[in-house]
Specification:
Protein name: Lysine exporter protein (LYSE/YGGA)
Subcellular location: Cell membrane
Keywords: Cell membrane, Membrane, Transmembrane, Transmembrane helix
Number of domains: 1
Structural class: mainly alpha
Strand content: under 5%
Largest sheet: none
Organism: Arcobacter nitrofigilis (strain ATCC 33309 / DSM 7299 / CCUG 15893 / LMG 7604 / NCTC 12251 / CI) (Campylobacter nitrofigilis)
Shape: globular
Distance between the termini: 16 Å
GO molecular function: amino acid transmembrane transporter activity
Number of helices: 9
Helix content: over 70%
Length: 208
């Protein structure tokens, strides 16, 4: 990956990490009730699960690209359409936030928080579909190697943790802002526009 591609990939994953969804809402609830430091294991568990999906997507894409060109073309188009779908859903899905009361707060140990975050992300198979759709924008799938996967995984892990902890800090320090449905709706519109733009790039920018 070039420096420009790496930077763009990093920013894209960061934006993906702060997009409203089950994981972000879990962080909002925990940050609003337990504080920022108790969000660290939850965010780390979500990030590790995402990295596993990312590696699986890289390996699967490389194998398909090398042996099944027509099938890879189908996946590329399906991935672009999926990004369009995500963008559409972000524009149309109503925002709902459920807070966790202190007397029902989850256990504060690291392992419990990590497993909760890991399962939140791992239980969502759409994550791997996102990476399958998104990776060809930044990586030459046909010449993908272990170093590329390592760099992509490292960048993604750092970007995910920064994004998720950013949400956690805001949840802890600016509760009223993040409880606003209007604010989350603006975030949805922004993220949805980015998803649609990424889908358009993937659909019309065919790799040689």
């Amino acid at each position: 990956m070039s420096f420009e591609s790496s930077l763009t990939f990093f920013l894209a994953i960061f934006i993906f990490s702060i997009t409203p969804g089950p994981g972000v809402f879990a962080l909002l609830a925990r940050g609003m009730t337990l504080g920022t430091k108790h969000c660290i294991p939850l965010a780390f568990g979500m990030s590790i699960s995402d990295i596993i999906y990312l590696v699986f997507a890289c390996l699967g894409l490389a194998t398909i690209a090398q042996n099944y060109a027509l099938l890879f073309e189908f996946i590329r188009i399906a991935g672009a359409l999926y990004l369009f779908y995500l963008g559409y859903k972000m524009f149309t899905t109503p925002i709902e936030i459920e807070t966790v009361s202190k007397d029902k707060a989850p256990k504060k140990d690291f392992f419990f928080g990590f497993m909760q975050g890991f399962l939140i992300s791992a239980s969502n198979p759409k994550v791997i579909l996102f990476y399958i759709a998104f990776l060809p924008t930044f990586l030459d799938i046909k010449s993908l190697n272990g170093y590329d996967i390592f760099i992509a995984s490292t960048l993604a892990l750092v970007a995910l943790m920064i994004g998720l902890m950013f949400i956690s800090i805001l949840a802890s320090q600016a509760k009223q802002v993040l409880k606003s449905k209007k604010s989350l709706k603006r975030l949805n519109y922004t993220a949805g526009s980015i998803m649609i733009a990424a889908g358009s790039f993937l659909l019309f920018n065919r790799q040689a």
